[in-house]
Design brief:
The protein has 222 residues and is mostly helical. It is built from seven helices and four strands, in the order βαααααβαββα. It has a single domain, classed as CDP-alcohol phosphotransferase transmembrane (TM) domain (Four Helix Bundle (Hemerythrin (Met), subunit A), Up-down Bundle). The longest helix has 31 residues. The chain starts with 7 loop residues before the first strand and ends with a helix.
Length: 222
């Protein structure tokens, strides 16, 4: 098993060239009282705001914009906490890894369940997408433990891109609604279909990546 202090971080995301300098600038300009733990709390606040906003869309579609603001707040806290710790050289590798990723799992659960309580996505498909996301999280953490490589991006997509896609979804719903479509299996909505496709993609990536990792480890353990 790898030492957590020696983990190689791989975050090769599409928005990386924009995100990395932005996070470094933010870390350099944070007030002294701002700490990584406070930022983690801000990220959780953002997740709660997203969930509550999605639930409130049962009363008005304008709350979609508040949900999008929640995604920005969640990104700010979740992405900046580790960057700030590294910038100030106050890393606590074991504590940081544990808190960051247990809180991430809680935040994602809150967000997906909140989306499922909106009038735009069926609760069953929201739960299926949540399972897929959590399976990918398990894959990342187990792979990190056995290989020492902390890979949080697949196919140029990571948490930042997922948030950006969610904000685009919100804008699409606000301006165009959630049109229904007929499929051979029955009638569904655009958002239900889109999220179902994402959920199935996560399942396939999990299975394929797990199989590939298992084959590699089997060769190494001979």
């Amino acid at each position: 098993m790898s030492d957590i202090n020696d983990h190689e971080r791989v975050n090769d995301i599409l928005l990386g060239p924009l995100e990395r300098p932005a996070l470094q600038w933010l870390a350099a300009h944070m007030p002294a009282w701002m700490t990584p733990d406070i930022l983690t709390g801000i990220g959780t606040f953002g997740a709660i705001l997203i969930a509550v906003s999605y639930w409130l869309t049962n009363y008005s579609e304008w709350f979609l914009w508040l949900a999008s603001l929640g995604f920005v707040i969640n990104w700010f806290g979740d992405s900046l906490d580790g960057t700030l710790a590294r910038f100030r050289k106050i890393e606590r590798p074991k504590y940081g890894f544990f808190i960051d990723h247990t809180v991430d799992a809680l935040n994602e659960t809150i967000i997906f369940l909140g989306f499922g309580l909106s009038p735009y996505l069926s609760f069953e498909i929201a739960c299926l997408a949540l399972i897929g996301y959590l399976l990918m999280s398990v894959l990342v953490y187990v792979s990190t433990a056995v290989s020492g490589v902390f890979k949080i991006s697949y196919g140029k997509l990571g948490p930042t891109e997922i948030r950006a896609i969610a904000i685009l979804f919100n804008a699409f719903i606000f301006f165009f609604g959630n049109p229904s479509i007929n499929l051979p299996t029955g009638r569904t909505t655009i958002i239900d279909l889109a999220v179902l496709i994402v959920a199935l993609a996560l399942f396939f990536i999990f299975i394929g990546s797990s199989f590939q990792q298992a084959r590699q480890l089997a060769k190494e353990d001979v």
